[in-house]
Design a protein that fits this description.
Layout lengths: L1 E8 L24 E6 L3 E8 L2 H10 L9 E4 L1 H12 L10 H15 L7 H18 L9 H10 L7 E4 L3 H13 L4 E5 L2 H10 L3 E4 L4 E3 L3 E4 L7 E4 L3 E4 L6 E2 L3 E2 L1 H11 L3 H25 L1
Parallel strand pairs: 5-6, 5-9, 6-7, 8-10, 9-11, 10-12, 11-13
Antiparallel strand pairs: 1-3, 1-4, 2-3
Length: about 300
């Protein structure tokens, strides 16, 4: 048995196009392989354990999965290394972010319970989760900014002057943003969502106003933070600073900053991160070699 990974991510197709490459379990019926589908805001990936990875990838193309030329394919040792790097946060748009480890582990456990792992994929994925945890305890890879929401906190925190802020979205990313931003700032703002109950629940936790996003226009707010799931465009008028961490980006207007630009600004402000990246890569290589030596000898 050997491993393969088909990967669509911010690195090859871009965040704006990622949603076009969705992989559903129904498309894999009849596949002669263990598999796990990993979906996050940064990536859509298919992890495989099979007899011949090259034949399996060819079979997937015949089934309509991975038929384009834009994805990355990893085989054998490279596939195993990729799994460990993803769980460690090395492949994330925000290097070292913590969310990916929980997302990876959740996908692994759920799909193992569904019976998709009977040939040994579970061993690699367990090793990846273990390595992700070890990388975060033995290096500073996750120190500082830990997710896309934290990039928004850093960016808006430098310019926030108490002006009214519109928070568009009421999900986990909006909650994480408000949790972090409220540590150092007294927020004057409103939570806006298509779901008024969710908006009300989140807003009341932070002493904010709440409202329904009735149309696709937000006006009159100096600051805007957006973490919204949807394909429609929301027009922002009059904002001096608007940050959109949605995938794909939904805000349209002047002064809108998306994830890619936030990442570039973060890289400039964290020059010491490279040393921790190298330490994390060393942890990955050590654990990878230990895993491969153990599996080959068993």
């Amino acid at each position: 048995m050997d491993y393969a990974v088909i990967s669509y991510s911010h690195k090859n197709v871009g965040l704006e196009n990622l949603y076009r490459y969705d992989i559903e379990p129904s498309a894999l019926k009849g596949l002669d392989a263990d598999y796990m589908i990993l979906k996050t805001c940064n990536r859509i990936e298919l992890y495989l354990c099979c007899g011949d990875p090259h034949d399996t990838v060819a079979s997937l193309k015949r089934m309509g999965v991975g038929v384009d030329d834009e994805h990355d394919t990893f085989i054998g040792k490279d596939a195993a290394r990729h799994a460990l790097k993803v769980a460690s946060g090395l492949e994330s748009i925000v290097v070292g972010e913590n969310e990916i480890l929980g997302q990876f582990n959740k996908s692994f456990l759920e799909q193992m319970r569904e019976g998709h792992m009977k040939r040994g994929l579970d061993k690699l994925l367990k090793k990846a989760v273990y390595t992700g945890r070890k990388a975060r305890t033995e290096t500073g890879i996750s120190r500082g900014k830990r997710g896309t929401y934290s990039l928004a906190i850093d960016y808006l925190g430098r310019v926030y002057d108490g002006g009214e802020m519109a928070i568009i979205g009421s999900g986990d990313e909006a909650r994480r943003f408000l949790n972090g931003f409220s540590v150092n700032h007294r927020i004057n703002g409103i939570v806006m969502s298509r779901n008024p109950l969710n908006a009300k629940s989140l807003a009341e936790n932070f002493g904010l106003k709440y409202g329904t996003l009735d149309d696709n226009k937000v006006e009159g707010y100096k600051f805007v933070f957006c973490a919204y799931k949807g394909n429609e465009t929301i027009t922002v008028n009059g904002a001096e600073y608007a940050v959109d961490i949605s995938v794909p980006v939904v805000l349209s207007g002047k002064n809108v900053t998306g994830i890619e630009e936030l990442r570039k600004l973060s890289a400039v402000s964290e020059p010491d991160k490279e040393a921790e990246v190298r330490k994390c890569e060393s942890v990955v290589e050590k654990e990878l070699n230990e895993f491969l030596n153990r599996t080959r000898s068993s």
